[in-house]
Each structure stands twice: as C-alpha cells, then as structure tokens.
Known about the structure:
Blueprint: E1 16-21, E2 31-36, E3 47-50
Parallel strand pairs: 2-3
Antiparallel strand pairs: 1-2
Amino acid sequence: GRAGVFPEPQQDPVIAIAAVALRQGAREPFLRVVFTLLPCAPLRGATVRSF
C-alpha cells in the first residue's frame, strides 16, 4: 500500500486477510488464521491458507 494513505480498492489490492477467534472469557485465541492471495512464508502461531 501507499504510505500514509488509507487503502482504496481501485489502487491498493488486498493480498491478505487475518482473523483471530476468541471464546468469551478466554485469555488466548483458539484460532489464528491468515488468508493470502499467493503463497507466503509460515507465520508462527497462525494457520496460513493461500489461494
């Protein structure tokens, strides 16, 4: 993305989306997942799904 500019879909493609799932009252998430447009290196503590 462009430094200092909020991403715009026409100019700044989305290449990764991350999510963390937490059970109510829990201190640690039970799921950490990252969805990427292309393959990427493994991320410690997260599941990576590439498409």
